[in-house]
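Sanity check

After download, print the first record. It should look like this:
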Amino acid sequence: MVSLLPAAEHHGVVTFGGLPVPGVSVTAKQGDKTLAAVTDGKGSYTFPDLSDGVWKMQVEMSGFQPIERDVAVGPDAPSAQWDLKMLPFEEIRARPVTATPPPAPVTVKAQTSAKTPAAPKTQSSFQRTDLNTSNTPQPSAGADSTANQDIGELNQRAADGFLINGSNNNGASSPFALAPAFGNNRRGFQSLYNGRLGFTMDNSALDARSYSLTGQDTFKPGYNNITGFASFGGPFKIPHLVRNGPNFFIAYQWLRNTKPQNQPGLVPTLAERNGDLTALGGPIIPASQISPQARALLNLYPLPNFAGGQYNYQIPIVPITHQDSLQARLNKTIGRRNQLSGAFGLQSTRTDNPNLFGFLDTGSNLGMTSQANWRRTFGQRLFTNLGVQFSRMAARVDPFFENRGDFAKQAGIQIKNQTPENYGPPALSFSSGISGLSDGQTSFNRFQTAGASLDVLWNHGRHNVSFGADFRRQEFNYFGQQDPRGTFNFVGANGADFANFLLGIPTTSSIAYGNADKYLRASAYDAYITDDWRMSSGFTLNAGVRWEYWSPITERYGRLVNLDIAPGFVAEQPVIGSNPIGPLTGARYPDSLIQPDKHGIQPRIGFSWRPFPANSMVVRGGYGVYYNTSVYQNIALQMAQQSPLSFSVTQPNSAANPFTMANAFLLPAVNSAPQTFGIDPNFRVGYSQNWQMSVQRDLPGALVAIVTYLGIKGTRAMQEFLPNTYPAGAVNPCPFCPTGFAYIASNGNSTRESGQVQLRRRLHNGFTANLTYTYSKAIDDAALGGRGQGSSVIAQNWLDLGAERGLSPFDQRHLLSLQAQYTTGMGVGGGALVNGWKGALFKEWTVVTQITAGSGFPLTPILPAPALGTGIPGSLRPDYTGEPVFDTSGSRHLNPAAYAPPSSGQWGNAGRDSITGPSQFSLNGSLQRTFRLNDRFNADLRIDAANALNHVTFPSWITSVGSAQFGLPAVANAMRLVQTTVIVRF
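Expected structure tokens:
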């Protein structure tokens, strides 16, 4: 079955020398998504909705070396920690502040001197910020709305900068000023060494309990979350042995974290287990007709712990995360022209993940990353950087039922080649809202990347020319089955789904096992050149071109399977990577079974213009093309789990193909393809065209106004559909054509346009604030997913893909954000002259608050029934009846009467993403202060409150028509969380 990876929230913190760094640009890229975020005043950033898996993260800030590494994202993945490394002094001195700002419409200021040489830019800088014609180089217009949300903040950073000795927004007087060990303010030999010790504590006594969707007073577990950290750095010296060693830095972090949450569910009552379904509107099934497989599976369900029709069971779930992280760096200058540096990181994470049924799955991740760089300065105008990188990560999942006995055999469910690590029950899914039975899958995956990079910067008059190239060799080694226990889906109204379960007759079944070890390989290349041309004191032009190529993924032993398709999809046959000759067409396939696309040439241009010399107005604009070169990983995984290399079947139950829970996993689908997935062998990599224009002007009262327009047009996005399917009640147009498989082509399109108004108050008398309003709209007809659409991103009508055109799932029409910061004791009116005990008590407290309010994200109404001829549910939509969609009279937010099954022989007319989801709101706050203990020791105290008002909001509603939970929230956002951080720095 083709599915979309689940989504999770990812957090991270960026620091320098133990201090949080605001305004850092963080970019995340995976597959067809490229997202961006900016760190807040605490150095923190958040990506609210990243799909599980490995994302390539990039962190950039003026004056610091960019950082790029792979980060694993998942429901229990730990927060990322980034420690910036300052560029060498000679580069900082030679580099104009605006030469490489964080992502903004354009990387330069018009007033920057045209004759000042600049330092080299790393290869990753060009990828994200070399032309900066857009906030994020998104591969399609369907990138996350976070990109447009952050444009104003990025423009602010580009305008103010983050200078090494404070910024022109008076940052030297803020709590983020650099430690006194920098520059000429050293106090003797011992101050050459910097360090910190600290911890962050979170206790259940101060946190609000998880919101109860059922209204039940569920027990609140007690917990203590703690993060401890220590770091130390300075020159490496050993008396009489090493006199002028390298500078070193070492840091360690220890985390113990629990995340309690209330988990609601709808479980069968005692009467329903015994066959009495009258409460559901169904029949009474005699005990003699209840299948032994159903009885065995019902033993895994708990009994209700309260009465209810939408939910009748709720318990607290307490996932636990343990993490240890180690980071180390060395930096050595050799002479005046050479510098060697290296870095090493090691992180170990262990997780405990219980679920509603009491199953406890455990996981462990162990990752390391290392890099070495050589920088050579050839003179005042020529710099080069040569680097090598290596990273490796191993991730293991051990499910509850692993090695606990063959449950399927004991229940009478026949599965071939069942092995002890894959013991356990099949997954169950019910359309009526009964909680689906699930457990994790055994896996042991290992990922490895080795790469090299070269970049050069040459300053010639008014030109700063940079060019470079990169190479990465990637290995993805997967040890695990896709669905070795199998899945049963039960569909029906008025209890019919549960009745069929008791009778042992699933609506669909799917299973995939075999070819457990998969060794995927890929190479990535890029090269670029750009010219930062300061044409005059009021105009700067930045132009260049970049080429990127990520080869389609191959399998070490040729164990990939694609489909050789006859014209019109009237026939299909598998083609294998080890023998890539199409049996139907006779076509010669490459080893990857997908033709490579080496046409990723991406021109980019941007400008910065000050039209009036005596005026503060600055106009910025740009245009760029960005290719999505990392689309192949998930595609290759699906190609590796297919017949004839493995047993992979997704099939519907019918009179021509009857089966029960006892034998479903032994029977292949009748008149269906034994494969479940295919992709156009001429698949082309999608790209986006991004254009942007902004106008910035100073206003009275230390105010700055910025107006920005951003447009994105995506081309050749992925589209996924089910060939030879037809609506229920219609005549099968091709009875002998193959069905049962999903197919991917690259014919999708997308667009997003947004306007943003930002009003910012520069730091003055201790107060700074930023108010941003964004209006945007995004639409597409591509396989970009759909909130409320489950895991399916498959088109309803394969012959009319244009009917899929609708709002993108990340479309947020309105977004208002306010961030304000006030530091006491700043300015004469703010109490700067207060001294004595009053001054010691009152001064230098910093209060930060961030308020975000936005409209809801689109949701898609779905029918849980599978498309005819397939066992793949979730691609169908209902008819809209004309009744009001929204219903606020009861606990539901959506009106069930607004949707009904479509007429016989017709597809549902409800549009994809046609429901506007719940509005979003959050208010976070923090209180912090630095206490100067003596000349060498400082102590930082910070108290953070997330969702300080304890206001409940919901990310989405359940939109599965016929479900008992239709119109109810799927989950609640986190309630109030209070954390206290104490750091001692020296």
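If your output differs, re-run the checksum step. Summary of this record's structure: The first strand starts at residue 7 and ends at 16.
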